[in-house]
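chain below, 115 aa
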Amino acid sequence: MKDLINRFRSRLAKRLAPFLDLTAWVLVLVSLVPLLFIDVAMVVTLIQWTAFGFALAGITVIITRVVFPQVDLSAWLREAREGPREGRTAAALIVLAVALVVCAIFLGLVLWAKA
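prediction:
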């Protein structure tokens, strides 16, 4: 059980690390602070749509894992980078196909939500 909790914590830390990136926060603050003085309603709309985008991205991940439970994308990425030469193209095409499906699902959710 401890092993499971430690694994969960390490995976959670890896997922939360981008939210602590200083470069991203500087860019967000540099753009939002002046906008806050110009148009407060626009800042509120941006924050709402960002939160909505995170929710839709989470739903996209869930749908992708339901549709492709057997596809281990990290294994295919490793195969595309380090595998035998003749198998790299096939592995890269699988990664590309999954990425395009994920993008299409996300775009579909955004367009459906916007309608």
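The chain has two domains: 1-38, 52-115. Residues 85-114 form the longest helix (30 residues).
thats it, cya
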